[in-house]
């Protein structure tokens, strides 16, 4: 149960609103297989939702400083482009929770590690851009997730204290960002399962956005 009804809900995008993280993961593993790197899914789970410098640092730490990063990145992006060619679907419950927030008169924002062009490309076809009061994307902050700045920026644009906002995240990096910003945080796991650290940082771990909507309805 949430301690109070939030004044705003701040959403991550990849893996929470859209089914993109599974494509990032599968293309990551395809690039690894193509290059013979032997990467495991646990490596991707560690870097899911992270900026490129964190991803490269993690890979170098796990696979050595001589890892062929440029070739790997080129292969990853090539596989990703093929997988995303026909578009990316919405996650279950997106329309329901946005409709509920309309009825409850709760404001909403996006805080994502993706660029604005990516937000427009993925959410525009579903006519979702107009349903958010503000969108904070890469380029709107200088310190990316897991730093708190993306969520602090969203709260500032909404004119609210971070502690009055609820953040919804699917990744370890995102949960750390939202929690360190002082927001109530719910993890809705996608490609990375919840860990003990995630459960400690979150007020709840929910199976999908339908469950989050049901939880919001129970808050007086």
UniProtKB/TrEMBL annotation:
CDD domains associated with the record: HAD_BPGM-like
Species of origin: Agrobacterium tumefaciens
Protein name: HAD family phosphatase
Ranges that cross the membrane: none
Highest taxon, organism lineage: Bacteria
Alphabetized Pfam families for the sequence: HAD_2
MF terms (GO), sorted A to Z: sugar-phosphatase activity
NCBIfam families for the chain: HAD-SF-IA-v3
């Amino acid at each position: 149960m949430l301690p109070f009804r939030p004044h705003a809900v701040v959403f991550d995008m990849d893996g929470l609103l859209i089914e993109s993280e599974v494509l990032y993961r599968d293309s990551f593993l395809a690039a690894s297989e193509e290059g013979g790197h032997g990467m495991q899914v646990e490596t991707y789970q560690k870097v899911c939702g992270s900026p490129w410098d964190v991803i490269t640092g993690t890979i170098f730490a796990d696979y050595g400083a001589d890892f062929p990063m440029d070739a790997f990145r080129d292969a990853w992006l090539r596989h990703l482009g093929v997988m995303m060619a026909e578009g990316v679907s919405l996650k279950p419950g997106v329309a329901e929770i946005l409709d509920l927030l309309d009825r409850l008169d709760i404001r909403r924002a996006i805080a994502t590690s993706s660029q604005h062009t990516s937000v427009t490309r993925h959410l525009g076809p579903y006519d979702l851009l107009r349903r958010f009061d503000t969108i904070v994307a890469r380029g709107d902050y200088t310190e990316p997730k897991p730093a708190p700045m993306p969520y602090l920026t969203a709260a500032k644009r909404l004119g609210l204290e971070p502690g009055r906002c609820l953040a919804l995240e699917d990744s370890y990096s995102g949960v750390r960002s939202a929690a360190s910003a002082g927001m109530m945080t719910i993890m809705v796991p996608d490609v990375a399962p919840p860990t003990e650290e995630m459960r400690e940082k979150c007020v709840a771990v929910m199976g999908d956005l339908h469950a989050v909507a049901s939880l919001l309805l129970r808050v007086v």
